[in-house]
Write the structure tokens for this entry.
Amino acid sequence: MHTLTSSETKETQALIDTAVKPLIQIKDLNVHIEGKQILKNVSLDIPNNSITSIIGPSGCGKTTLLKTLNRLLDDSKEVQVSGSVLVDGDDIYGRDAEVTHIRKKMGLLSQKPFPLPMSIYDNIVYGPRIHGERDKNKLKQIAETQLRNVGLWDEVKDRLHTSATRLSIGQQQRLCLARGLAVQPEIILGDESTSALDPISTQTIENLLIDLKKDYTIVLVTHILRQARRVSDYILFVYQGEVVEFGKTEDILLNPQQELTKQYVKGFIS
Amino acid sequence: MARQFPNQQIEWRLRKEKIAKILMQLSGILITGSLFFIVGTILYKGLPYLSWEMISQAPQGGFYLGKGGGILNAILGSLYLALASTGIATLVGIPISLYLNLYVPKNSFTARSAKLLFDVLFGIPSIVYGAIAFSIMIWLGIRASLLGGIITITLLTIPIVVRTIDELLKTVPIDLTQVTFSLGATRWEAARVVLKYIRPGIFTAILLAFGRAIGDVAGVLLTTGFSDNMPKYIDEPAATLPLAIFFQLSSPIPEVQGRAYASALVLTFIILFIVLCTHLLAAKQKKHKL
Amino acid sequence: MTYRLWVDKLVQFGSAFLLAAKILVVLMIALGLTIKAWPLLQHENLWEILSSSVWSPLKGHFGFLPFILGTIWVTLIALIISVPLCIMASIYLVEFASDRLRKSVLPLMNVLAAIPPVLYGVWGILFVVPIISQYIAPLFGIETTGFSVFAGGIVLAVMIFPILISIMVEVMQTVPQELKDASLSLGATHWETIVSVSLRKAKPGIIAAIVLGISRAIGETIAVLMVCGNVPQIPASWFDAGYPIPALIANNFGEMMSIPMYDAALMFAALLLFVIIFGFNLISRIVLSRLEDHG
């Protein structure tokens, strides 16, 4: 199997505007889970203020890659991570990295919406409260701002204190997005975030993400090529734990350099 | 993005987590420790009094005043009682749980409410069973006897058998029954296949019931009576081990109290042996499934 | 072919019959207890029986208050000791402990559950009672034999450890990892996540476990009887003797039958236990099975 050598990676990276220092830099990342190597030598700079989609067949390690970014994998047992992931220039796997700070920098949007078992309002202000915000007026203001951000304010403003689980599943996912935004992250991570949603809710979320990229760096895992085409600026193709190709969306989809990418994009491998 | 949170005091938050973790570990140690503590106390107090005479002889005259003899009658009484009631409970309990899982639609009202009923019965204390059985026995003119004890303890153990087997039946893969049915088997034939599949687990259920039966006091206190004779007839009062412990313990004579500790040790050994067997069987059941 | 179907039908009806018989027995227990307790209920009204503290069977007074309060005292003490310990320990087992630790601790809980009540009683007499009379009570300047509601509470607390732990662990394991991830990814610490997400989500199950523990504690007879002192008085402190309902039945049944109404009074006590425990169990089992369905 042919994969990118490091010089080729550099070439690809050179295509990307590197005037600004990238927020997320991954260097020689290797991840073993229960003795099995899931990610092999991943090195990559993720461009700021744009949407990067990670694509690849199921089981190729895309979700693992996403979860290494906010250290959610640490909690599962028998996970070994080597290499480094720099966020804002700090190695999040470094010795004195503080995991709650790292996670606060990133909002996670999971496959299915998981509203916390509390009211809509409490869901949004959960993060700010944990980080020490006690001022009620400020909390109210945060809740309104974030709910407006995801276009949920008008739908829920009269029932802020009812249980979040009573919302429709699409509303729940937007609530989860707002909840993530309320801790002022710099990065949004999405793990197949629309796979449980109906087409209309999917579209809403996708449009929201496109709107948000001016303020945030967004990384999405998706197995739907059409979605990657619709929303992303860059695409990263991962196969069996290795980065095969990384580049601008249209380059990857229309003019892939690697044979594997070509086959995947055409639907020969999945 | 101008808004900033107040000082986050992350150190304090992490310290809280550390303190909580220490408290949790202490609780865990205390709870698991209590087991070793109980067994240890009984071992420490009972071992000096344990002798071959204790477990090989029936009480002689004046046994409860500190004279010679042993508690063989109580050991045998308990074993007979537990064997008989567990046996009946198994014979009644297995068909009931099979019926509730294979014959009645799984989520039907009958199945659900019957299972709920058995869950609830599982929690009814044995003193209640004992009280009602005793009154019925008086009403029927039966005196306290081994038979009375067996009936009471059977009622007590049926819910245990039904519940445990029901849990086991839930683990049977649905494919197994479907494959059997698709071969044209009747429900009874399918039930036999299922029974074979969960066989080691059935023994676990039986042992659980046996352990409960042999250790129960409140149920036998009123219904079985007590006797210094070896249990020979089912319609006569019989001694049981837990009750022997209880009676000897209330004696003011230190020698007799010591025997109570030794009897407690014998009961502990029996229970630990049963638990060990269940554990080994559970391991076998797991292997069986792979 | 017909033979096979015939056997099938036979088994079906046989099993249905056994089930019906068993249910009938339960109904008979409830009915029997009520019939037997009826004379007392005619003799005095229910409220009088439950709220009077005068227990003098020879004069025909059957006030259950001392026994009811005795039961409540030991049960509450048991809960105060065991609930926090069990919640903490189950959190540790589910959230922090390695698989190996969890797999070796949970079977130990089964051993603890298998130990017969009488052995708990022996342990109580050998250890708990002397400790209370020699070490704990003097701390408060109180003199006591040690046979007290406190001793009963401690013994009961240990007895309900297994049921609390096993159900709490099971319930906490049903909290989805993704939900915890959602809280963690907002920057909450593991402990904060447990307090505001896992425990909140598991709350109905934890309450159900506690209710089951309560009903176990209320019905426990012999172990409590052995360490509680059994004086028909209303306990005024942790170090006073108490006389819980099951102990009343066990101590007196079959012995005081010549006193009029005594029989009915004891049957009423049994009925009281049956109703309370049936109700408690029913509620918590329904809650638990709902959780399982939605889990």
Observations:
- The mean pLDDT of chain C is 89.
